[in-house]
Amino acid sequence: MIPQLIQSIKNFRKRNLQLIAEVLVAFDMVRILGTMVSGGAVRMKHTDGIGVLEYVELSLPEIEALEREKTVFLMSVSPIEAHGPHLPVGTDVFIASELLNRYVSELKKNHPELTLVKLPSLYVGSDAVPAPGSLSVPATHLEGILTAYGEGLAKQGFRYLFIADNHGGPRHQMAIEAAARKLWKKRRFYLIDPFGLVFRYMVQHDPNFMRRTGLGPGECGDSPDSHAGTNETSLMLACCPEKVRRNYKEVEPSLPPPLRGGAAFVAFLGRLIYSLGGRKLGRDLQDPLAYTLAWVSDPDMKPYMGGPAKASKEAGEAMLVARVEVAMELFEKALQSGGKEPVHIEPMLWGIRLLRKFP
Ligand SMILES: [Zn+2]
């Protein structure tokens, strides 16, 4: 009797253990399947609490489980560049990263069906100010990296890479748009950098944009305020005030030098082309190119342009809000079109984009 009892207890335990194991396996399968397919996307612990996945944290099965049409990649792209005595050399990427987080919040709000995936920030950019501290990269290299990243995503069946950027270097912007157009032509892939458009609005005082920001000439990132001046210091006060050096209010303004030599010639050429009907290029040559050349060829050049002391967090915040609005309009066009229509931007000096090929 007793051995029989022991045997039946053993059998009972074995069956139950088996049952428990089966339940656990089934439960795990459900969990894995749930993870892989819930809403067509991987649901993972979000790293920053605003609902975005980090690409480099994903495993291959997790990447494979992402729903192709509903996944949007985002990446900050800007150079390491000297930004006066009061801002760090990573300023452009820090501002871009804040923009990217705001893009994520807006996209999540307007498109809860999307899965958003962040790529690591790319500290790469062209035409950084020629000053110690800057680590500028040839435009062809930047173009190559972005085209390759876009290709890599497109080959996996993805469709969208939205860029956050804060650098107005002319060949930087040409290279990004050239990569975007290649990717569209070859793959119907959307690489969109709204700064190519925003920068034009800032420099040439687009009335709609100026109204949105509530800012005036000389404080909106135009030529007399083009680098680490009022606008960019304001942006940093809004994005990461702890990174703004406390001396920013004592930094004396840097004023645009008069147009001489090559800069004066470029301005003349711009006026000529403008009068002959090349309105866009003619205008871009006069402002910003002639002003930029005058500044960077000035023997007393300061590694900033504008008045940092006038910066305020409020002005930076207004600029961020307006920039996110412009970006969302562009992203929305791409999301609505879904591969049917291109979303092209014409950055400054696009008419002479061949310049990006020269060192
Ligand atoms: Zn900058």
How would you characterize the overall build of this protein?
The chain is mostly helical. Among the domains are: 48-215 and 319-353, Rossmann fold (3-Layer(aba) Sandwich); 255-301. It contains eleven helices and five strands, in the order αβαβαβαβαβαααααα. Strands 1-3-2-4-5 form a five-stranded parallel sheet, with helices on both faces. β2, α3 and β3 (115-118) form a beta-alpha-beta unit. The chain starts with a helix and ends in a 22-residue tail after the last helix. The model is unreliable at 23-49 (pLDDT under 50). Bound molecules: zinc ion. Zinc ion (ZN) is lined by residues 81, 83, 91-92, 166-167, 227, 232. Residues 81, 83, 91-92, 166-167, 227, 232 line the site of zinc ion (ZN).
Question: Can I get a quick summary?
Answer:
50% of the residues lie in helices and 6% in strands. With 359 residues, it is mainly alpha-helical. Among the domains are: 48-215 and 319-353, Rossmann fold (3-Layer(aba) Sandwich), CATH 3.40.50.10310; 255-301.
Q: Write out the CATH superfamily name of the domain at 48-215 and 319-353.
A: Creatininase
CATH architecture of the domain at 48-215 and 319-353: 3-Layer(aba) Sandwich
- Class per helix and strand makeup: mainly alpha
The strand line-up of the biggest sheet is 1-3-2-4-5
**Count of DSSP-assigned helices:** 11
Tally of extended strands? 5
The largest sheet, given as strand count, sense and whether it forms a barrel, is: 5 strands, parallel
CATH class of the domain at 48-215 and 319-353: Alpha Beta
User: Tell me, what's the shape?
Assistant: globular
Q: Low-confidence runs (pLDDT<50, min 5 residues)?
A: 23-49
Share of helical residues: 40-55%
Using the CA coordinates, give the radius of gyration.
26 Å
Strand content: 5-15%
Q: In whole angstroms, how far apart are the ends? A: 94 Å
Would you give the CATH topology of the domain at 48-215 and 319-353? Answer: Rossmann fold
Order of helices and strands: HEHEHEHEHEHHHHHH
What hetero molecules are bound to the protein chains? zinc ion
What number is the mean pLDDT? 89
